[in-house]
Amino acid sequence: MSDEQDTGDVGLQDLSSNSNEGPELAKKADGVVRSSADLEPVYDVPVRVQAVLGKSTLEISQLLKLAPGAVIELDRKVGEAIDIYVNNRLVARGEVVLVEDHLGVTMTEIIKMDGAAG
Questions:
Q1: Domain edges within the chain
Q2: What is the pTM of this model?
Q3: Spatial CA neighbour of 18 closest among 33, 6, 36, 2
Q4: How many other CB atoms sit within 10 Å of the CB of residue 84?
Q5: For a surface tag, which of 13, 92, 96, 113 has the fewest beta carbons within 10 Å of its beta carbon?
Q6: Proportion of the chain above pLDDT 90, given as a percent
C-alpha cells in the first residue's frame, strides 16, 4: 500500500502547513511541522469507547438457559486490568473505579501503536 491516500475527489483541505504558529509543534518524518491546532477540525468527532471487563464463550443451549441471577464466568480475575477500546481498537488497559454512583476506568497502561493498519 502506498503512503499516498486517495481523497476520492471530495475536495479535502490540506491542513499540513509549514507554519510555526500554534502550540506543541512536532516535526514529522516527512519534514512537515504540525501543531495540535491541525487536529482542531476533528475535536468534535464522536468516537466509541468501550471498557471490556472480560469475555466468555457459551453454547446456544447454555445461553438459552440463562435467567435473572445467572452468573457468566469471564476470562479475567478480580483486580486484573481491563481492556479499553476506542473504535474497536485496543488503546489502553485500566482498572475499574467508582466515581460517585457510576463506574469509571483509570488508565494504567497506554498501548503503543505499531503503525500497522488493522
A1: 46-110
A2: 0.60
A3: 33
A4: 21
A5: 13
A6: 56
